[in-house]
Amino acid sequence: xxxxxxxxxxxxxxxxxxxxxxxxxxxxxxxxxxxxxxxxxxxxxxxxxxxxxxxxxxxxxxxxxxxxxxxxxxxxxxxxxxxxxxxxxxxxxxxxxxxxxxxxxxxxxxxxxxxxxxxxxxxxxxxxxxxxxxxxxxxxxxxxxxxxxxxxxxxxxxxxxxxxxxxxxxxxxxxxxxxxxxxxxxxxxxxxxxxxxxxxxxxxxxxxxxxxxxxxxxxxxxxxxxxxxxxxxxxxxxxxxxxxxxxxxxxxxxxxxxxxxxxxxxxxxxxxxxxxxxxxxxxxxxxxxxxxxxxxxxxxxxxxxxxxxxxxxxxxxxxxxxxxxxxxxxxxxxxxxxxxxxxxxxxxxxxxxxxxxxxxxxxxxxxx
Length: 368
What we know:
10 helices; elongated; 7-stranded antiparallel sheet; single chain; lipopolysaccharide transport protein A fold; alpha+beta
């Protein structure tokens, strides 16, 4: 336990990092939010969307922006902190006092790893729910439209085995009402056992109620066609899930567990399977850009002091590093989708490349 206690050096280095890090997250978040703020103003002024709905939509999208800007903010924060410490010869004084360079920056590296885990948690536990709520508000309140226009296809496992597939043409009332519903149930062998047609399905008390339903049962002894005013069924999705699923099924807005669940349904095309698989692998690798950016920022921060220490210099250098990193990541993403067996390697390759660059430059800085 004694080894885990923070020393004066640890607290000092973390204090030096915290201010620039908060500034970096705020600055990059503001840049990302600018486009969203303009879109909100346009929706209110031109489309007549309620102001409360526009603000709610923005607040729900904020966690996703913060998740993206934590690595960028940490990169900028580390650059600015190291620039100041090196520019005022504090690092030189610490080394003269017998403290190794690696020990000096160790608190920053540990903090970066902890923030990587925090970013992963935000990505998996907070952002997917927030994005689903934003999609629901934008599609059904701001745009005054159904959450989907080209139809919905939802598949869910049945308790006794087999599967149930539900099709709908549109939704209203925040996706609590589906229109033009067709439901097909299959046995374990994949043979259809029942087909249900309904004018609408309404969500209430955690159940879906089909109205004006025609039920066709395909049994061994014949086909039975019946009509019922109402039929209660479980579609395997609640309104928020349906709205999110209908919004182009963007895997970037889902957690890894949600992506894996959709992949297991076997309903994806070959192209969609490649996309979903690559995003699934990237979502594990991307949060650790926090650690990679910190590792590479330390030697760059020391070197940049020679040209003059300033916030502008640090911000410009951070933008360049982020830009190059995401170019490499995009290239690796295309490679991973084309060579699916190597998707995991392609997802981690940007981190590996920048870690090697950062470790090499860090080693040289430690030797000075």
